[in-house]
Amino acid sequence: MSGYEVDLSYLQDTVKKLQGVADGMDDANQKAQYQTNLTRTQVGGTMFVEAGNLHTAHDNMKSQLANMIKTLQTMIQEFTDKTGSAHDQYSAQDTQTGQNFSRGAS
């Protein structure tokens, strides 16, 4: 008999691992948004001419990090969904094939 076999447990394990990565990204997102705040005075105040530029650069970097994390989370979620869907389809096919063999053996 020729064909192929899909390791459903491997697909399920992959989904779990991806979900773990996605959960970790939530923590990174929270830190990037809420634990990296700097005020203008923390980068030099009114006496330092470049303080405004540094503060603006800091805010821009925070926004860029938040966007990158959001993009990664979206990609991970899409891959997780697709992997889960593939698992479900292969599982359903495996069940159907088993039922077909059972009927043929009767």
Report on the architecture of this protein.
The protein has 106 residues and is an all-alpha fold. The protein has 2 helices and no strands. Helix 1 packs antiparallel against helix 2 (51-105). The model has no long low-confidence stretch (mean pLDDT 84).
Concise summary:
By secondary structure, this protein is mainly alpha-helical. Helix content is 77%, strand content 0%.
General form? rod-shaped
Q: Over the alpha carbons, how many angstroms does the gyration radius reach?
A: 25 Å
Mean pLDDT: 84
Secondary-structure element order, N to C = HH
β-sheet strand percentage: under 5%
- Amount of helix: over 70%
Q: Counting H and I runs of at least 4 residues, what is the number of helices?
A: 2
Low-confidence spans: none
End-to-end gap: 21 Å
Structural class: mainly alpha
Largest sheet: none
Number of strands: 0
Tags for this entry?
single chain, 106 residues, mainly alpha
Topology:
Elements: H1 8-34, H2 51-105
